[in-house]
């Protein structure tokens, strides 16, 4: 009798355990859904945004022109005058210029502004830096040339071409107090001599000295990154070069931050870590590639613009 009771009690316990487990399993998803439903709407939205955040969304459908800015003819005049002031401040060199021009011209032809006449220059400096000015003048330091392989150098040059294509410096200039006087002087400028040219030179010398046109907002730097990585891929360079360039700069920032110039002081993330991750994801998603015939033509020798 006792054995039968024990057997019956065991069966009752087993059935109860199975029912409890089944009930718990069926209730678990409901409990989870109820927890999610108790979150505030903005919390759930934030969770979704984190998952699908696109740091380059504002630039994917952007169109660029000189509308509302200096016209292209005056922009070219401005670039010529600014370059004259740059040569007074920096020591330009021909060391590495052939390499810079070869890579830079390939990137320029694949850019959002391919018809502009770009002029590439090398500055003798231990500072790792690069910058651009209106009218297609792009500068790179000898220290940068030593640091970067060809794909990495292409990423830097394409980044600077991106600034020119997006007219970032022109937009900065328009916000300055000197804009109206500069625009008027450029319209009246007919050469490098005369009172107009002299007064304009003084004003532009002050602008170059202050670095007004070579500093950019973080959004502008992010936009130049976006344009640059697509440009270098279309030009036939490996876009991973931008990622490895960022990685090198991150290492230098941690070890010798005094060697980094203005190119990186206002980059999207002060430590470049977020920029690396954003760019790695962008490259992994796939980028436009070079046309094989155009790439072979771009590898032909080009005239160096000095």
Notes on the structure:
The chain has 306 residues and is mostly helical. It has one domain. It is 62% helix and 5% strand. The protein is built from 14 helices and four strands. Helix 8 crosses helix 9 and helix 11 runs antiparallel to helix 13. The N terminus and C terminus are likely disordered.
What is this entry, summarized?
With 306 residues, the chain is mainly alpha-helical.
Key phrases:
mainly alpha, 4 strands, disordered N terminus, 306 residues, 4-stranded mixed β-sheet, disordered C terminus
Characterize the biggest β-sheet. 4 strands, mixed
What is the ordering of alpha helices and beta strands? HHHEHEEEHHHHHHHHHH
- Tell me the radius of gyration: 29 Å
- What is the topology, as strand order, of the major beta sheet? 1-2-4-3
* Percentage of residues in strands: 5-15%
What multimeric state do the chains show? single chain
Average of the residue pLDDT scores: 80
Q: How many structural domains can be distinguished in the coordinates?
A: 1
Distance between the termini: 109 Å
* Low-confidence runs: 1-51, 293-306
Q: Give me the count of strands.
A: 4
- Structural category is mainly alpha
Number of helices: 14
3D shape: globular
Helix content: 55-70%
């Amino acid at each position: 009798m006792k054995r039968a009771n024990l057997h019956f009690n065991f069966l009752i316990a087993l059935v109860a355990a199975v029912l409890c487990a089944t009930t718990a399993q069926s209730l678990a998803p409901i409990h989870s859904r109820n927890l999610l439903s108790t979150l505030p709407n903005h919390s759930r939205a934030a969770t979704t945004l984190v998952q699908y955040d696109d740091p380059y969304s504002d630039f994917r459908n952007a169109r660029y022109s000189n509308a509302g800015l200096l016209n292209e003819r005056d922009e070219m005049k401005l670039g010529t005058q600014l370059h004259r002031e740059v040569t007074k401040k920096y020591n330009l060199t021909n060391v590495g210029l052939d390499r810079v021009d070869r890579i830079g011209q390939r990137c320029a032809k694949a850019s959002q502004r391919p018809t502009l006449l770009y002029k590439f220059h090398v500055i003798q400096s231990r500072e790792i830096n690069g910058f651009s000015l209106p009218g297609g003048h792009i500068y790179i330091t000898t220290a940068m040339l030593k640091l970067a392989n060809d794909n990495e150098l292409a990423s830097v040059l394409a980044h600077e071409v991106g600034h020119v294509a997006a007219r970032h410096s022109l937009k900065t200039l328009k916000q300055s107090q000197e804009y109206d006087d500069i625009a008027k002087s450029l319209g009246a400028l007919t050469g490098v001599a005369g009172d107009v040219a002299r007064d304009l030179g003084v004003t532009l010398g002050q602008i170059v000295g202050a670095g007004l046109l070579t500093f950019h907002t973080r959004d502008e730097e992010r936009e130049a990154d976006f344009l640059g990585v697509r440009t270098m891929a279309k030009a036939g360079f490996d876009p991973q070069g931008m990622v490895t360039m960022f990685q090198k700069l991150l290492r230098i920032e941690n070890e010798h931050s005094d060697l980094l110039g203005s190119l990186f002081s206002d980059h999207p993330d002060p430590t470049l870590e977020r920029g690396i991750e954003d760019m790695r994801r962008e490259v992994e998603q796939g980028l436009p590639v070079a046309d094989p015939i155009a790439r072979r033509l771009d590898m032909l020798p080009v005239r160096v613009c000095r």
